[in-house]
């Protein structure tokens, strides 16, 4: 009687392995999420920075890995090592900034102008809240 259960158990385990492999292949080939396909959380640069400086754990729960639409004033535009523009957006407090790494190299922005940037929040450093894969709204 016990010998007849082994083929059934092997079929069951084989089916689980096949299902797991199928899910793995689908997840591996899944296209990365684009910021324009996500609904962004509207927030000012001042509020975002204040939230992170007041309670980082709570801000991480609210913003981390989510699409944000941050509005503020462009204070600086630089380029990273890959030649991609990095835009510093600030609110009312010049010591609190949002660092936005843009997706495209050909972004045209002016310092001193108000802008809304949409990107994924990747946390903060001692000085800035970080957004990646950013586009200008």
Architecture overview:
The structure is a single chain. The protein contains 3 helices and 6 strands, in the order αβααβββββ. The mean pLDDT is 87. It starts with a helix and ends with a strand. The longest helix is centred in the first third of the chain and has 24 residues. It folds into 2 domains: 30 residues; 102 residues, OB fold (Dihydrolipoamide Acetyltransferase, E2P), CATH 2.40.50. 31% of the residues lie in helices and 36% in strands.
Shape: elongated
Biggest beta sheet summary: 5 strands, mixed, barrel
Q: Please state the second-level CATH architecture of the largest domain.
A: Beta Barrel
Helices and strands, in order, run as HEHHEEEEE
The amount of helix comes to 25-40%
Q: Report the strand count.
A: 6
Q: How many angstroms separate the termini?
A: 69 Å
Strand proportion: 35-45%
Provide a count of the helices.
3
Low-confidence blocks of residues: none
Spatial extent as radius of gyration: 22 Å
Q: What's the CATH class of the largest domain, please?
A: Mainly Beta
CATH topology of the largest domain: OB fold (Dihydrolipoamide Acetyltransferase, E2P)
Write a compact overview of the structure shown.
The protein is built from 3 helices and 6 strands. The protein is an alpha/beta fold and 137 residues long. It has 2 domains: 1-30; 35-136, OB fold (Dihydrolipoamide Acetyltransferase, E2P) (Beta Barrel).
Topology record:
Layout: H1 5-28, E1 41-44, H2 45-54, H3 56-63, E2 67-79, E3 85-90, E4 97-102, E5 114-124, E6 128-136
Parallel strand pairs: 1-2, 4-6
Antiparallel strand pairs: 2-3, 2-5, 3-4, 5-6
Helix pairs in contact: 2-3
